[in-house]
């Protein structure tokens, strides 16, 4: 809000400045736009010299003629002379001087050769032939003398299109220089050179020189254009027409504003709007510059503050190091020792967990061997005689605040905390959720996993890339276990065989036959998978004869997981028990907590 108020104040100030500069009164006063304050005639001398014996020029005659016509239309009494000799120029300026004292405006336009010697500028008549610097006052006309001849005219204007390369300059042994010299500036006299002092101007390839072309164009419609503004436009036009090679220059100043044609009072509203527009533009520019300066100062202050803070911190750290390096070292040593103790305790805890799991497997394996020998069939489990090796286990707990992985991640290497969620549906539509969870990665042994049903752990086992069936407390009774990725199913065995004897009237179970019946692409809630379809037949020994359990398993070797499983039970004694045991189980979701 403060910045906006400052901008409005700046706009108001610039309007106050610019309105007087254009001769425009505020509309609120009701005053008309005044004409230029001139009392007396406008007189002008226009000279165009082209036919020099050496170094003739093409355009000065056209330039002078065009300028004389333009000034005449603007109310000037013009004395025009083309290809003037020294005598012609002396005579024309004698008449000019006699009339200048009573004139309101006295103007000179000269096109032709000009020369500077010893810091003074000279008009070169067409018959000039100086042999020495002493000949200058006899053969040429000094520009300072011409300005003096303008007498007491209240406005003196000089347009000098005479900065061409002059062949006469080579006639002097010293004192001459390239282009024209900067004139003596005075209030009340405005001098416009076709190019800046020390440079040369082009004669032009068209009808007029570049400078005369721009000046004549500006004088065609000069109403309401103050002369300084007009000459700035001429400067830009010449610079653009010559690709920056030539740039007109102004010297001196006027005491007030001058218009070749006064502003039309009917255009006051347009002029006022232009003034306001310029004021807004100027005020906006200055406000932007001020904002940039303030921004730079603020950034500088912030940088200085940051550097001071950094120095203070560095000094504090240096003092701290000097005063307490031994304390820091002691604290670091204790921290390292504590971390080492915690790692050692975690290692021991994980090794104990693995040992307990493997001991249970060995015990279960021994029981299965005995049961198989008694039943005379295939062993219910593989021997588990391997001793637990020293371990470096991953953490069992999921990462706090972790998010589930995408299902595509299940093809990656397993990590502690990974979970596979299955949904089991029986013939009555009852659903149960079973989760397989990785507890630890066991280098050289396999993957320690647990099976969780209804939120309660049921079975825990180290799976070692061999085909296994694991007993679970659902109607499926058995589940094709994870981690197998081989081609041979001959070693298929049952782990946790005590599950069989937990069923009513069942005294044991064994694998009767197993076979891969083909490849099949299936879609489950967890996604689409390429699977091997496996048919398994189990025999359950009961008090009333043998019952058969037929399992169809769709298994993804890429993911080392069962994707779908269906189970049907058959009993030869009664048709009523044909579907007494029936359940489907599908992979519903996968979560990888350790990698999130």
Q: Could you explain the architecture of this structure?
A:
The two termini are 49 Å apart. 33% of the residues lie in helices and 28% in strands. With 596 residues, it is of the alpha+beta class. The strands form 4 sheets. The chain has a 9-stranded antiparallel beta sheet with strand order 14-13-12-11-22-21-20-19-18. The chain has a 6-stranded mixed beta sheet with strand order 2-1-3-7-9-10, sandwiched between helices. The longest helix is centred in the middle third of the chain and has 108 residues, at 268-375. Strand 15 and strand 16 form a beta hairpin. Among the domains are: 36-262, Rossmann fold (3-Layer(aba) Sandwich); 407-592, YmcC-like fold (Beta Barrel), CATH 2.40.360.20.
Question: Features of this protein?
Answer:
Rossmann fold, alpha+beta, six-stranded mixed β-sheet, single chain, 596 residues
Write the layout of secondary structure elements.
Blueprint: H1 2-21, E1 42-48, H2 60-73, E2 76-82, H3 86-100, E3 105-111, E4 114-117, E5 120-123, H4 136-139, E6 141-142, H5 143-149, E7 155-161, E8 176-177, E9 189-193, H6 210-220, H7 227-241, E10 249-253, H8 268-375, E11 418-426, E12 431-442, E13 446-453, E14 456-463, E15 468-471, E16 478-480, E17 493-495, H9 498-501, E18 506-524, E19 527-542, E20 545-556, E21 561-570, E22 582-592
Parallel strand pairs: 1-2, 1-3, 3-7, 7-9, 15-17
Antiparallel strand pairs: 4-5, 4-8, 5-6, 9-10, 11-12, 11-22, 12-13, 13-14, 15-16, 18-19, 19-20, 20-21, 21-22
